[in-house]
Amino acid sequence: MNLNARAARRTDFLIAHALERRVRVVDVPGGGRVVDCGVETPGGLLAGLDLARICMADLAEITLAPGEVEGIACPTIQVATDHPVASCLASQYAGWQIALSKFFAMGSGPMRAAWGHEDLFSTIGFREDADAVVGVLEGRSLPTAEVIAHVAQSCRVAPSAVTLLIAPTASLAGGVQVVARSVETCLHKLHELKFDLSRIVSGFGTAPLPPVASDDLKAIGRTNDAILYGARVVLDVTGDDDSLRALGPKVPSSSSRDHGEPFADIFARYNHDFYAVDPHLFSPAEVAFRNLQTGHSFAFGRLEPAVLARSFGTEGA
């Protein structure tokens, strides 16, 4: 199961529907291509769904569903996967910071499996040799030839074999692909808690899609809040029940000392330093484990609709 090859096929679908998806393909001098999903083109909800599917190596069903926040209609991003570790941690997790000259973006997608330098790959495996790589960037400016060359060298491919898709956080497509990380955020928290990830068979998650914010910093706050205070994740697992009972209270975002405020306020309090924020905060609001062997279910955490409404700027009549 080659993650990059799967993502490449889904990328070809997006490019074939570029006009309808309101995205633009940019050929980069020296080789490689960029798919702009919201920097200099509008993008949209459907582009965001494709972007999220590509980010998960097309190993998940990702859909829009009805929802609400404090009685006000709000779309929900729904994710279902039978390959949670591969799709979420080997592909979707934004574990590659790409910073060159004046360019900066958070890198995710299956190109990370070809790069393979993150510590978590020593635990989860899924490193791969690829003939071509696909990456998803959360950023405000289009990747340059220098960026393409850097990714190519890091992944041991030619620049012409690199495809990067990008959307800002403060865009429709960018918001969708970030909020589609409900299951991924949960798995990463479990990885940090030393849970045996091989026990996770399937994952399902939902999270509310916030309105597009006026700038990327505010959008980072809203999209984080969608997960921290609005995401619900259900994991089908194997193994014993006692470990689930013991671990469960540590998994949701409510286990963090920073829980309870909009992320923008927390972030400002720490002078916009992600690494100063309590790492236990980054998890879904609610997490449920369903044991496929014992038939028992365990649920932890709680939604915080009032915090979401404050973050999203939701006002009723």
Top keywords for this entry?
6-stranded mixed beta sheet; 317 residues; alpha+beta; Methenyltetrahydromethanopterin Cyclohydrolase, Chain A, domain 2; globular
Mean pLDDT: 96
Largest pleated sheet: 6 strands, mixed
Fourth-tier CATH superfamily name: Methenyltetrahydromethanopterin Cyclohydrolase, Chain A, domain 2
User: Would you identify the CATH architecture?
Assistant: 2-Layer Sandwich
What's the level 1 CATH class?
Alpha Beta
The gross shape turns out to be globular
What fraction, in percent, of the residue positions are helical? 25-40%
Approximately how much beta-strand content do the residues carry?
15-25%
Tally of helical runs = 13
Q: What order do the strands of the largest sheet run in, or round the barrel if closed?
A: 1-2-10-9-8-7
Which H/E pattern describes the elements?
HHEEHEEEEHEEHHEHEHHEHEHHEEH
pLDDT below 50 for ≥5 consecutive residues: which ranges?
none
Number of E strands: 14
CATH topology, by name, is Methenyltetrahydromethanopterin Cyclohydrolase, Chain A, domain 2
SS-derived structural category? alpha+beta
Q: In angstroms, what separates the terminal alpha carbons?
A: 51 Å
Number of domains: 1
Using only CA atoms, what is the Rg?
19 Å
